[in-house]
Amino acid sequence: MNVFKDFEAKIKAALEELMADGSLPQGLDLSRVTVEPPRDPSHGDVSTNAAMVLAKPAGKPPRSIAEALVARLRGVADVTAAEVAGPGFVNLRMAPDYWCRRLSDVLVAGVTYGASTLGNGSRVNVEYVSANPTGPLHAAHARGAVVGDALAALLEKAGFEVTREYYINDAGAQVEVLGRSTYLRYREAVTGEEASIPAGLYPGEYLKEVGQAIAQRDGDRWLTAPEAEWLPVMRDYAVGMIMGWIKEDLASMNIHHDVFTSERALVQSGAVDAALQTLRDQDLIYVGVLEPPKGKKPDDWEPRPQTLFKATQFGDDVDRPLQKSDGSWTYFANDIAYHYDKVRRGTPTLIDVWGADHGGYVKRMEAAVKAVTGGAGMLDVKICQLVHLLENGQPVKMSKRAGTFVTLRDVMEAVGRDVVRFIMLTRRNDQTLEFDYAKVTEQSKDNPVFYVQYAHARCRSVLRHAEEAHPDWDISGPALAGVNLSRLSSPEEIELIRQMLSWPRQIEAAAEAHEPHRVAFYLYDLASAFHALWNKGKDDATLRFLIESDPDLTKARLALVKAVSIVIASGLQVMGVVPVEEMR
């Protein structure tokens, strides 16, 4: 149960009563009325904007509406104070017993606590990773992979039906380069002569494995064949083998996609022609000459007629080319077809997780989705900024196998899956992230992975000690939900409960904003509150969790500890991280 939704219902019921008795006009639209925590906790437990948003349609001053609403709410059960603040906000404070009773919601629900019906089964497509199949995944791919996967889990927790998708960029110049690079490694494997890799081709050691595999399968068959014959063989074999590595690396992070879509197959199916015909039918394609790009001197620019999409009609800066001089489609044309295909599959809400180098591509893609779907499709692009890999503040050396970067596998082997997943969510996706091997594995408050996991481990330790001391007690969540929770009365205990009961609202807010990092922030704050209570118990024996002389109080505090472990586990589940049972 979401306590803020609970009070939203009570506040709207009070407004309905005010409309019924003539204090407010009949038929006011209450959809903009919100209930949330006040920015300053000293102002109360919940706050509503009702008077502010209803003032104009009601034709009354906000404070007048607020005062009438406060008079109604003072009689609502569990409300101990109702006040008007500022120009017309209404702040409410609840009795401590209200929070204690609601703790049972957490205990009964278990790790499903926080699940919401916000999405109401609406379909969302989250496309993430989608790395070019030209080499192993690197550390920056790890960030996009985690952000996309956690976002998909977050949306599912909020009641959306999610499709996880990977777009295989297996068409265009980069895979032709891959094919030629692979051929050199194939020749090397057959002849035993070390290959010289020209500039512009892929130098990574990983392609030796691909070349050796082709040599083992085909022998010297391609040594004297013309490029037209060996290029598609080398290209397709390399793409297939590298995609196998990518899937293995993702699986090692517990990341699994529902759909893998091939760009090459999409183009060959005629999807680009179909999508662009939709734009032609709307008179959104024309032949024209673009102005010189900004920063280009006129003599550097060779104007020529091009097939253009009227992107400026949909918020882009310039109209965009759809066809190259050789008659083939641009990457942009292929991407229009791909996004059109996703929407036609029945998923109108699209979320793409892209790397930092794609920031300039967002406007045109958003414009294309609006145009090709007639406004029925919505695209939200999440740009993941760079990851700086460090070891005690010094840059980490590049991977020998990759040749030019640190692979995801290298990072996983250094610190483990759960550390990678957690740390990648400790910054907003659009902020640069520093990933220091030493700092992300140290046992300190400054390491959020350790701090949150330590809170869960401490909870489990308390519960284990209770089981050993009282083997006849049932300390399952549902059983503890039935104990006298009103025994929890210290300000620290009540504040901890309030933080836990805000978890459902955090899920909904993070899902609506498409911001999974909020989960990591929330868990750190919850862990901090729990550790603070633990430390107070070391100094004040009356605040300890296990009080031998008072079984009822002990059971109530075990319920509190159990609930903390549940909410942390629920949040870590969204992040794709396994909660630890103990720490040594």
Automatic annotation (TrEMBL):
TM helices/strands, residue ranges: none
Q: Which residues form the Arginyl tRNA synthetase N-terminal domain?
A: 5-94
Q: Which GO terms describe its molecular function?
A: arginine-tRNA ligase activity
Its keywords, alphabetically, are: Aminoacyl-tRNA synthetase, ATP-binding, Cytoplasm, Ligase, Nucleotide-binding, Protein biosynthesis
Q: What is its EC number?
A: 6.1.1.19
A Pfam family matched in the record: tRNA-synt_1d
Indicate whether Amino-acid biosynthesis appears among the record's keywords: no
Reactions listed under catalytic activity: tRNA(Arg) + L-arginine + ATP = L-arginyl-tRNA(Arg) + AMP + diphosphate
Domain DALR anticodon binding positions: 452-583
Tell whether tRNA-binding is among the UniProt keywords.
Answer: no
Where it sits in the cell: the answer is: Cytoplasm
Superkingdom in the source lineage? Bacteria
| InterPro entries in alphabetical order | Arg-tRNA-ligase, Arg-tRNA-synth_N, Arg-tRNA-synth_N_sf, ArgRS_core, DALR_anticod-bd, Rossmann-like_a/b/a_fold, tRNAsynth_Ia_anticodon-bd
Question: Which family is this protein grouped under?
Answer: Belongs to the class-I aminoacyl-tRNA synthetase family.
Q: Which NCBIfam families match?
A: argS
HAMAP family, A to Z: Arg_tRNA_synth
Q: How does it assemble?
A: Monomer.
UniProt protein name = Arginine--tRNA ligase
Instruction: Please report the organism this UniProt entry assigns to the protein.
Output: Rhodocista pekingensis
